[in-house]
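Researcher: Quick test of sequence recovery. Tokens follow.
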């Protein structure tokens, strides 16, 4: 028989063991879903994990306005209303979204094009802008790539009023799509946002935009992700340990004798316009690099948008997710926009 003290110690020990097991278990990914780069693959996002709402901050000069906003992920609804007073302006917003990550395809595909669609959209509201006062409702859909720091937007609805009577807005069962280039390892955020603004200027009768009261709202059914293009995996013809291969095509292929430029570790090129593509050619490597292969002993490659290592820059290297150091620049803002480069 165990004493009460020993039972207590055993319980404590079991609790510590349980905590240790939980500690070593893999943590869940930030993403609500994963999609492989296989052409035709579809991912449906119906669980919305991010929602926010807000309005203008009060100031001493502009306090005479009212409004509300609401974002309900469970019902997939957005609501917002803004009403100004003479001499004031108000803007309220509500948004919600979801996230997913991109995985390598079954055949080793590392990049492709995906189409993201928000579907089952319905909008009901009103915009009242008497005389010359300003009022507007904007519904937009956006896709952000966290790895590439890029963002694409699509306006789904822009509603403005004009005249003495309110403009009624009612649109049922429509959708909107955005196509974006992706690579394996990308983290994608998709968002739907409703923004309403109302201002009076110097009018006695201010504007009022209402997508909030009663049945007024924006709703949708879900978001769908589809892989519409999946390119074959990049051919890995590895450079020597202290070499970097630079290509004029996004797949790092030697299509022609002048398809690639070879640089060595420690080599710096302050102006790629000084490097001809081939002997006697008038074509140079300025704004032509579209793919990079990095040798195993090269620490990093720094590319610059302008000559003499100026302007926007980015660092490429071998990473845990890209151990071969093969970087396609298509779709990340650097495709054929490099004017100087440093190899370390």
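Model:
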């Amino acid at each position: 028989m165990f004493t009460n003290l020993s039972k207590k110690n055993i319980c404590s020990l079991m609790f510590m063991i349980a905590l240790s097991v939980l500690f070593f278990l893999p943590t869940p990914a930030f993403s609500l879903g994963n999609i492989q780069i296989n052409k035709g693959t579809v991912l449906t996002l119906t669980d919305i994990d991010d929602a926010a709402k807000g309005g203008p901050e009060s100031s001493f000069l502009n306090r005479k306005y009212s409004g509300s906003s609401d974002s309900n992920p469970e019902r997939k609804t957005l609501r917002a209303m803004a009403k100004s007073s003479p001499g004031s302006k108000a803007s309220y917003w509500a948004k919600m979204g979801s996230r997913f990550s991109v995985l390598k395809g079954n055949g080793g595909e590392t990049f492709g094009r995906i189409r993201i669609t928000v579907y089952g959209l319905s909008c009901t509201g009103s915009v009242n802008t008497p005389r010359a006062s300003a009022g507007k409702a904007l519904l937009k859909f956006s896709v952000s790539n966290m790895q590439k720091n890029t963002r694409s937007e699509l306006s789904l609805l822009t509603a403005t009023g004009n005249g003495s009577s309110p403009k009624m807005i009612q649109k049922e069962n429509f959708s909107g799509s955005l196509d974006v280039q992706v690579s394996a390892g990308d983290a994608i955020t998709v968002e739907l946002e409703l923004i309403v603004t109302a201002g009076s200027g110097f009018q006695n009768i201010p504007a009022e935009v209402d997508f909030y009261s009663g049945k007024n709202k924006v709703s949708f059914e879900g978001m769908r992700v589809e892989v519409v293009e999946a390119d074959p995996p990049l051919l890995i013809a590895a450079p020597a340990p202290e070499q970097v291969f630079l290509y004029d095509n996004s797949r790092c292929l030697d299509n022609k004798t002048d398809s690639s430029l070879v640089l060595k570790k420690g080599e710096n090129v302050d102006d790629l316009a000084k490097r001809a593509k081939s002997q006697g050619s008038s074509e140079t490597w300025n704004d032509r690099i579209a793919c990079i292969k990095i040798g195993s002993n090269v620490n990093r490659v720094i590319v610059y948008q302008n000559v003499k290592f100026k302007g926007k820059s980015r660092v490429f290297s071998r990473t845990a997710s890209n151990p071969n150091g093969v970087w396609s620049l298509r779709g990340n803002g650097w495709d054929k926009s490099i004017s100087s480069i440093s190899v370390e």
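The helical segments are 4-24.
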